[in-house]
Structures are given as C-alpha cells and as structure tokens.
Amino acid sequence: MLISKIHNNKKIDMTLDILMSAILPVAQKGEEILKLKAATIASDEFSSEWLIGLSNAMNVTMFERNGVGIAAPQVYVSKRVIIVASRPNPRYPDAPEMQPVVMINPEILSFSDETDLGEEGCLSVPDQRGQVARATTIHVKYFTLCGEQIETTFSGFPARIVQHEIDHLDGILFVERL
Ligand SMILES: [Zn+2]
Fold this sequence. Notes:
By secondary structure, the chain is an alpha+beta fold. The protein has helices at 2-21, 49-64, 156-169, and strands spanning 69-71, 81-84, 101-111, 115-122, 125-135, 137-143, 149-155. It is built from three helices and seven strands.
C-alpha cells in the first residue's frame, strides 16, 4: 500500500512537472478537439493541482508563442478554462497591457449593441488574420482557480480576446466569423 502510494504520488508529481514547465503543443485548425463543446469544470476541481498545473502550462505556452489569450482545447484539454492576457508583443504590437486573467467556466452575461471590427489571429490558425466584428463591451461571469465567482466588464481589445477564447470553448474558430 505504501509502495503504491509513493508510486502514485511520484506519478502525479511527474505529470505536474510536465504541466508546469512544458510548452504544450497547440491544436491546429481541422483537428476534432477544436470543434467540441468543452466541459464545465466541476466544483471539486477548483484549487486542484491539475487545474493549477494546466493553467500554468497554458500561460507558458501562450507567452512563448506571443499569444494574447489561450483556451484549454487549444492544448488538447476539452475543459472550460481560458486565459486573457492582452499586452504588446510582436504579433499584436498595439495591444493594451493588462494583468493576465485565468477564467474558469466563463460566461458572457450581456453584449453591448455596439460592435467593433478588428483584426484577429489565432495560435491554432497560424497563417491567417482577419477582421472580425465583436461586441465592444461585454459583462462577464467567471470563476477563479480557487472557485471564487467574479463578475466584471471588459471593453475594447480585452473584450475581443474574451469573446474569441470563449468561442474556442464552444468549438468555434474566428475564421468562421469572417
Ligand atoms: Zn484562438
């Protein structure tokens, strides 16, 4: 029993190590995982090591590839987890700076009637950019990694990122909105 416990812990530690440090492969347009409706995170999964490990790995993968957002299905995990992290970088030189936000089970409660047309790209669609119409302002509900419920408003480019990433959770790519 002790041996199996040690073995199991070691296995979990190794999995976490990989998740914490690795730059994960990113699913590409055409792959099934990007077409699925991702599953809700259950309440007993909040604060779990795997959820924190997943968000760390998503963060590392997004930064390494100069993304300003990422959704779990893009790293082959069909769960409702996104990161929104607008900042200027070589792919988006004019992006405003914000603190990265991890959102679990995000939901858009309301969209402004006003929309903006703006350029989008996607780590899963590397060779294409396009002008997509998105609501200028959205009111969003989500949970933190610890399960705290947050309601907040996003405008402009960060609002665009949130809408793009939540689309990923519903199996939609920006190219379908062109
Ligand atoms: Zn994308």
